[in-house]
Structures
1.
Amino acid sequence: MPRPLWTGAISFGLVTIPIKVISASEDRAIHFHQFHLSDMGRVRTRKVCDLDGEELSQDEIGKGYEITKDETVPVTDEELDQMPLPTAKAIEIVSFVDAAGIDPVRIADSYYLASGGQVAAKPYTLLRQALERSEKVAVAKFAWHGRERLGMLQVREEAIVLHVLHWPDEIRSPESLAPKDVELDENEIEQAVQLTETMAADDISGFRDHYREALEQLIEAKSEGKATPEPAEDTERESGQVMDLMAALNASVEAAKESRGADDGDATDATVHPMRSRRKAPAKKTAGKKTAAKKTAAKKATAKKTAATRSQEKRSAS
């Protein structure tokens, strides 16, 4: 595990749990430097004062808030550290909610919370088991990087994870983005649902970053003076090409079946949707009427046969 990014405690009612914050993910992307094309000299970003043109070190740089173009209010790190925040060194749990009640759009970065020594082992385990048994997540406040933040505490395997949440007023509304007045045929919807069923997966752990792998091959080949790899065949449609929606859905379903090794006889629409079940209902009712009619006719024939037998027996007796 990498070194802790922050140390503090979880405030759980009157219970205090010392913890260390560790990043739950890592950046595996390939990063580039900038170079001068003519001589391959490194191009760097330098911090220069606008007034005197001098390059500054980090020790000479401070923070400030620009009120107007000519007026800036300086704010020191010491002043920020002395802000009257109860969450300055604690992740304060303020509520417990159902996980489904948290909008995924609000989730930002994620961090593991490691117990801070043996003294924290018991209260840490207590909170983890309370979250598991209640099937809830904890909503908490904490101060980090000069601002108060909102977070969600959730159990992952044997650890507690802190998901940083955006504040409600930081989420933009998507109201104006949805297309207006679009009519869809019921068959198109049914085929789209069938496509989702065909492409369904239990998990996404098998996905790989093919772009990064290709980039690593390119860098390796160039560093060794070898020929660069051939570009992959472009199978994308021409930009701007308009396809028939139903035809595209049918083709997509067939392609998904083929990629999963399903033969043509496999039924992928095992889930019966309302539109189809309504069409099948009359057939069942008609079959029931025919069966009842056959039973009635059989009863009448049996009755006639019995009456004829009795009449013949009476004539023989006389």
Note: The mean pLDDT is 79.
2.
Amino acid sequence: MVKSAITIKDVAREANVSVATVSRALNGHDNVAAPVRKLVLEVASRLRYTPHAAARSLSSRTTQTVGVVLPDLYGEFFSELMRGIDGVASAHRRHLLVSSYHGDQQQQGSVLQAMRGRVDGLLVLSPYAGDSDFLVDNLPPALPTVLINTPLAEAQYPVFSIDDHAGALSMTRYLLETGHRRIAFIAGPVHNHDAQQRLLGFREAMAAFDGEVEAIELPGNFDEASGHQAGLALLAAPALPDAVFAANDMMALGCLYAFSQAGVNVPAQVALAGFDDIPLARFVHPALTTMQVSIAELGERAMLHLVQMIDSGQAQTVPAVTLVPTLVVRDSTAVCDLP
């Protein structure tokens, strides 16, 4: 015989209080006396009562769940971003419903549609340039939404992002100021807004330098494999550049591996720099010079703003919040001897 599940009525009967009192006590409402709350919690624990999530959602019109929609889940950037989001979610007793659309626009639309009725709010990262109209058309109407690293022509939603352009300018200027003149840049995905801004920053810094320089651009895809491929391409060229600036750390690490396999010394023969400051960047040899992006903080701030929107029931739109990366110099770059 299957034992029936313990209900809120069982807890109320055992504690000798009303069902409403049990509900208020379990949901942390203030209008319950401390001794009564303690009794209810003890009885609920002893009976192993578990509130029914769907029933709670229907009665409160909330799910206590936030949807997180990302282009991918692979890599340390997304791991760090989720760490920041999850920390705030846990502190505010929110569950996370996480989904990836693998960079596919149609799948992104399906994922966003599937979130309807399941979550109280959305965090969406959609860095693909030209996606804004499609994205807005597929966001559930009236659902609190915060965007991360997402280019929008109009400020319809709060957007928390990284100043990729300023970061790339800063890194390229640093490499030039330390004597490097032939600089290779490993770019990110062509249609990725972050990658476009980092490439633009590199180009502007090279063009603005008062002196003779040579810029070398190689394709990349924000992963180790494409960084390794770019490294092999540089090794096959007649001469190595003075420095390599990869548009993210994962590609820089792939390039570093290619150089290491070929016996090329970094930074004695060629300097190497990345972007993001993922945790692994400081633990490789040599430790990677990079632009430090507070990835976890980006997730924290976006999630906190979304929680505030949900709790207040108001849009709370704010001007775009932009985090400016900081240059972190480590052992993978060195001052180049000028002729």
Note: The longest strand covers residues 65-70.
3.
Amino acid sequence: MSRIRTCAKKTLLALKNPAGSVQEVFENALDAIEEDNGCQYMGVKNVRQIPMEFVRNLESKGFALHTLDAHSHNGRAVDYALRNPITGQPMTGSSSGTAINVFLGINDLGIGTDGGGSVLAPALAVNCFGFISPLMAEETMKQYTKQSTDGIAFYPSLGFVTAEYPTMTKAIDAALDLEPAAEGMDAIRLQASPAFAARAAVKPDAIVEVPAAGSDRNTLIEFLDRQLPACDVFADWEEKIDFHGLGDTVFGHFDPETAEIQSRSGKGLIRVANMVKATALTIPATELSSGFTLYCESKPEKIRKLLAVAAKLLPEKDALVQRYFRDPAPYFEKGFVWNH
């Protein structure tokens, strides 16, 4: 019964919508919780690219559809309509509302789309886990080929955002049906940037210099295209996402000053993971809007190895984040009421 009460509070919080990140609440989600005490809440970015059969499959694997989530206008990389709950600055896009709703504890899992970092960057911006893979609903996603603001043709990948790593692995298992990795860490060819090697307890087999985060996308694409076939997993570190700058090409294209601000956004390889059709995972660190990023070729055996590396990099839980953001009670200091 206590789980039912907790989930009811999550629905009340979704209806109150304190961050403006919820567009619709499925109030019958509580029925799924009542039927299955292992069920978790799921939010979906409100875009047509996400196939309903993909969502239904996750529902059959223990996730209850809870919200439709707001997103940035026209897929922009910064959402000027929503605020990062931690920094108060414009929220990273385009799966902005999806990441916020996971961060606030409204949902356990968020489903978004990633063209040029639109799942990975918002997840990292609020210290959450983010995952993308072109293997999820691949044939459907190929129908949505478009051009990025800097003229690169791509189609999006589906992706997940979670606050807890076990929830992430549950969603990945539901979507990709991967077998556990049989090999130990010694059998994984791990290459990494100097920044990763300096921070991670996991030691890479080789250290490779990575282009600066502010580099143009073609430079980053060429780099990842070279690295991924040469290893099982490539590991990097990205920090202060949209903290010192705004990683938005529309904003940055106007003049040298706006381009310089864009280059300080902290977004590096996460901007091109989908464009080289890599599978990628962000692992938040204790530092704000920062964490490890892992990339591999989109092959099941390599994805299993990527998850094995990730399991060695998990952060400790942040008690203040839990207290200030993920406890529903402070949002209802006058009682559990909300404005329609």
Note: DSSP finds 13 helices and 15 strands in the chain.
4.
Amino acid sequence: MNTTAIKKLIPLRLKKYLAAYIGVRDLLLPSSNRCFVFLAADYGNIGDIAISHAQKQYLQRVMTDYEVISVPISQTRLVLNSIKQQIKEKDIVTIIGGGNMGGTYPDIEELRQLVIKAFPANRIICFPQTLDWNDSAKSKHALHRIVNVYAKHPDIHIFARESMTAAKLIKLFAECSNVHIGLVPDIVMSANAAMLGATDGLAPSGILRCLRDDKEAALSTEQYAMIDKALADTGYQIEKTDTHAGGSQLDEAHCLKLLTDKLSQFRAAKLVVTDRLHGMILCLLSGTPCLVLPNSNHKIRQTQLDWLRNHPRLVFLELDEIAEIPKFIDRLLSLPHGTMIESPVHINEYNDLKKSVARI
């Protein structure tokens, strides 16, 4: 039997533990109080990179007497034991926000639960997330495991970034007084483009089409065609882009450049059309008018309803409204850009998160 055949016989879970054991290494930590950001994005999803960077910045502003340490997601299993051996009672463990809680991204959810179980004596704060669920047996099993693992931690704070997730989490943990559920906006909206490192460039020109083609896409072939025709009819140059650049185990400087380049690209457009949550958020941070379409779950629609309903440079269209897209494109193209120092929500919207992080 050849090596490839032998590898196929090894269960995936065992492969993960073997890889972690072989690659395990020590991580030298500062002696001061530490605040950890676990599962930080070191891969080319620019939305997740924005979350990681904004979360670290937020903690640095709030926890001025703490050293904020990012732990890249690819390094989780390799350094977890070293951190466990050095952890102190006052250290705070935060886990990255985003849209990966539930069964759609099981590898990330598995790592989140691994971190929660690793630090039973420290406060755990899950930054604002969207939970995904449905009526399938797979989804029900994933939710059962989430409740089982999270509820065993004595001091855990879980923040939803939209009200549908908050309501579901409150229902799931109704019998668990030790699990604190909160509702705050996506953490990227606590920052602005300048804070995230973007710089202003040329005068806006052209339209960016930032539409997804993955398992979260909701648009039909006919709807893509309607959008493309409406954009072409404007006479402006149309450029296709995405917030997913690819790559893995990227260093922090490379990740930051991907983020700042994307913000600058959005800033240089007259209009962005997107069905990505962070396409919408990064566009608003850049000051550029944005036409937003739904994805396959509730995260974009509910974020817009909860936090961005009255934003002057944002139009959200439901799928059955796409036939009317030309008039909304014309309206948005007539709007001036905002500045790069504006945040889409007021910082006070994060007060509950601040209380949990700072133990107020």
Note: The CA atoms of residues 169 and 181 lie 7 Å apart.
